[in-house]
Amino acid sequence: MHMGCGAAICATLLMGTTAVSQSTIEGTVQLEGAAPSIIHVKRVDYPALQLGTWQEEILVDEEGGFRWNAPAGEGLFELVAPPWSWMVWVRPEEMATLHLPAGATTARRLLGSPGMATWTGEHPTQWMDSLVNLQRRANRLRAESLVLRRSGINVGQRDSLSQLNAELEAAFESRWQDAVDGCASTWECDLAWQIKLNEALASAQPKARLDSLWNASSMAAPHRTWASRLSSPGAYSGWLAVRGSWWLERQVDWNKLNEAVFTANIDSLAAAMGGRWKDVERSELAAAWLDKAMDQPDALVRSVWETFAFPAPFVTAYEALRDFRKIGQQGYAIGDLPWTLPNGELGSIEEQCQQPWTVILALKNGSGLAAREREVFTQVAENLDRRDVCWVVLSLDENQENWRRTLSGRRTLDETVGWVGNNPRVMENLGLAVVPQVIVLNEDGQIAAGNMPLPSEGLQRRLQAMLPR
Known about the structure:
This protein is an alpha/beta fold. It has four domains: 19-124, Immunoglobulin-like, CATH 2.60.40; 126-182 and 185-243, no CATH class; 251-325, no CATH class; 338-466, 3-Layer(aba) Sandwich (Glutaredoxin), CATH 3.40.30.10. It has 17 helices and 16 strands.
């Protein structure tokens, strides 16, 4: 199902019932080969911004079964067993059983390939998936009708498609109304309304209609705080569907926007945005500039957030977004990196690498390219012969068997080799997207540069230009 942000006629019903009950979720994970031993968990604090905080991991047995003691209250979580991840909505005292198979397409990166989370038992995502499937069928029919209309072919077929589309729209409206009338929590209502807004967008409804739907929704209810909208998996995304991408409109005056920032005049800022923005509350302006910070984080965005005192929930969200974007990028300090040593003991990069600079080749067993690059990596280290550099082969292998095979490729005992496993936090911190990949850390423990070439593609020349002479 699509997890974005949406509305609520049931807000007060939820508030008194979701505060303390922990959910014990039973489930299975089914991936090719052996089941992962650990599923990593990130609580999604800001769904529309895709930002969250890492939680305690889930242990998985040899058959792929697990029991997960989810944090108390309602929550949206990303479960990660690289390369797969699953977006999961857990309610208080959740009774449904969770199944985590791989995605429909082949994973092509280390992290973030979407898996297919499904629930057995009563869970709101089941009726939501049904509504979304109706939407997709109607969208395909609209596209087919448009092609036929433009080509002037088969009037009877066009009429048949139009009738079927009308039937699907009627079915969607009936099911949606039942869902929104019976939603049991704020989040459930928000997601139902978000689906409704997506349907209106897909059918090219005018802006006035979108505004009307937003105003009628639980997402726009007067009692809703922006803190609750930002944390909901439906509400802020619903707002973005109606009010987002405002900077693409013709009425935006860029010269006056920069002038408003220079003079620190919030009224001038709103007026320069044009259209409806000159009449909205400061929280709406903050929502608009958070939108631009997500999509186009340019110098103007930074200046706006540094200049104007927006409401605290937005400032917190913006700072979380800004800090997350630094992770894995040039200048990011990775801190100490714990790993398993070849002798089975625990160690760390800080203990093993006393030199000021560190050059890391991240790899996994089973990659022919990684094996070849490892050979060239050793040659680069020998050619440069730098005493101020620690050369590290970092294993991202999923299990001990693959780690032992990686270890068997060690040419000398002097080669520094560490095993961090299939750990998404490490991949995130180092900015790893594929294997093999090279990362260079400077004397301050920061990522020294992005887009480092592989050993066979010019790493030696790049290092000669980068390292102190």
